Amino acid sequence: xxxxxxxxxxxxxxxxxxxxxxxxxxxxxxxxxxxxxxxxxxxxxxxxxxxxxxxxxxxxxxxxxxxxxxxxxxxxxxxxxxxxxxxxxxxxxxxxxxxxxxxxxxxxxxxxxxxxxxxxxxxxxxxxxxxxxxxxxxxxxxxxxxxxxxxxxxxxxxxxxxxxxxxxxxxxxxxxxxxxxxxxxxxxxxxxxxxxxxxxxxxxxxxxxxxxxxxxxxxxxxxxxxxxxxxxxxxxxxxxxxxxxxxxxxxxxxxxxxxxxxxxxxxxxxxxxxxxxxxxxxxxxxxxxxxxxxxxxxxxxxxxxxxxxxxxxxxxxxxxxxxxxxxxxxxxxxxxxxxxxxxxxxxxxxxxxxxxxxxxxxxxxxxxxxxxxxxxxxxxxxxxxxxxxxxxxxxxxxxxxxxxxxxxxxxxxxxxxxxxxxxxxxxxxxxxxxxxxxxxxxxxxxxxxxxxxxxxxxxxxxxxxxxxxxxxxxxxxxxxxxxxxxxxxxxxxxxxxxxxxxxxxxxxxxxxxxxxxxxxxxxxxxxxxxxxxxxxxxxxxxxxxxxxxxxxxxxxxxxxxxxxxxxxxxxxxxxxxxxxxxxxxxxxxxxxxxxxxxxxxxxxxxxxxxxxxxxxxxxxxxxxxxxxxxxxxxxxxxxxxxxxxxxxxxxxxxxxxxxxxxxxxxxxxxxxxxxxxxxxxxxxxxxxxxxxxxxxxxxxxxxxxxxxxxxxxxxxxxxxxxxxxxxxxxxxxxxxxxxxxxxxxxxxxxxxxxxxxxxxxxxxxxxxxxxxxxxxxxxxxxxxxxxxxxxxxxxxxxxxxxxxxx
Length: 806
Prior knowledge:
It contains 19 helices and 41 strands. The protein is of the alpha+beta class. The strands form ten sheets. Strands 28, 31, 32, 33, 34, 35, 36 and 37 form an eight-stranded mixed sheet that branches. Strands 3, 4, 5, 6, 7 and 10 form a six-stranded antiparallel sheet that branches. Strands 12, 14, 15, 22, 23 and 24 form a six-stranded mixed sheet that branches. Helix 5 (256-268) packs antiparallel against helix 8. The longest helix is centred in the C-terminal third of the chain and has 19 residues, at 783-801.
């Protein structure tokens, strides 16, 4: 929100407060100020000039030689190439040795042999963006008002000597998206009551209801909708003061009717739309949902295919505007417009947000409909706009507003006690001090022995509970005035819990494997939130998200890590190993009444090279076994090898169906490890990537993960190898379990050291070779004991797995 300091001074007396002081004060009371800019800063020696004579340059087909009055005794000759320069106009002149936008210095010189004492400037050349310059001046120079005095600095005529205060408005303070809202806020800070001098509405006897009828299909879509009719208007450029306000606010002036609607948008925060009544094609306005397949050509001359999600304004038959987002091309205000149908409304915020996102049409209007509007001033804003159109365009306002729906707005009452305010803020405020704060805020109240009933006006729709009132008291009292206190009481030595100690070990293990920690946002998009889910859950949505990309609580950690991988890949990083320990949020009940279940997870992502190529050897790319190896180490560190198993899966749509395994703790699924599906990797624009995510909370809570000390055996270990041929669908895990179960308590380790498929191996089979290690902690092993164990292993493998021992 860009706030004009000059404009604000029309409603409050800020003569003793500088723009920077005001900005500092607003920042410490809750509304952050991004910057304070004065458009004239950096510009020098730019004055008003009057073109007395203009003739074509003899040696050019587009240059003109102008004799310009710049307030001196003699006229100054300036060569100008603007197509709209002519005699009799007031212009912007940069004198010799002046400074224009970009710190460019203008010097006296010659153009095609003719002396040019300076430069006649366009608005772009003194710092205005192309997007805010009136179209009639976008390809040429700006005309100044006829009463501009030659030789005077130009800045005051364009309000470039104003200070523009840029506010960073959070969604809960949408009331400050208007000059009125800002005026009330600043008034509360400086204990002033703003005075608004709005144009007075004068209506003629003719009734607007005789010209137009209004219907609303569903009042949930449009809780308030009305039309005012202004006849006999004459379309023309707006006066300079109005154009200045709009340009300084980042809005392009169009004409005296459209500019009024934008002015009211800034003043009230109420979006309006003006239709050319004669081009509507009927005497009816019908607000409804669009029919599937309907089309509308919007003001940007683009044909939009509509859906049932869109609210449209129709003439009873076909859409003429996309409600709250953009008007239709066929009913826009044009130079020949004589009758204006002025719309003021409230629309369903969710529908407006979806529509603006669907068509990528974010505007000042749609933003305000999404964040909230003062319901009490919908009609007032429309009345002031109609009065201004009548004043600036010479029209007549017909009697009455034709309404299709209307809201009844009531003040909100909140009860609170002085004791509770002081308890929360740590203050010792008195009744008189709190009374003064409520009066400064413009809140009504009744107080009985320290108990308040606070009456909050509709313009502050963000206030409804005790905490809101306490926050308002703190803001106006001053956060810097709140007392600072240290904790009191006895202190005791701190210690880490078992979960904290193990979590630290998990971090150390991952970092010891070369995996770096990343921290991602807990808020993400709904699409990313519901990817890589380990169990079914609803999404937990924010009511007031800062952006669409941060609207839903995450249900996995992987999507955040993939964003980090994509960020690094885009910057040519080829060795990527990232992990995160954080919470995911499961919601299986009503999100409005129940908090989500928070579950602590650990996840990591490996992409690119595991080792880089150098003089000692070739580089190695990450693969499935690098990821699984880290998971195996993690499981071993937590002493869960006996209860954790892996199972091949293919039902996770975001994971590669042939390179993904589910991880089970007993019968409970606690995670997965594998390769990202190639289509998902392509969507993130990353190379082949392997990930794992585990429910760390469940792993740490397992009773099986207790370390039991065993002394190193005094007796030697004996190793035996066994090679077998099995069907290729039998997993290593299954074979290892059979060997362990059959070999008995003397077996201490089983290692797979060879896998072969190919020549001399039957199709559909594979050859595996294992090394078995035996130790007897009480005596030296004999061949008979080892042979007995190996015979049991051989029998179990042949009987249970149909293995062929080689």
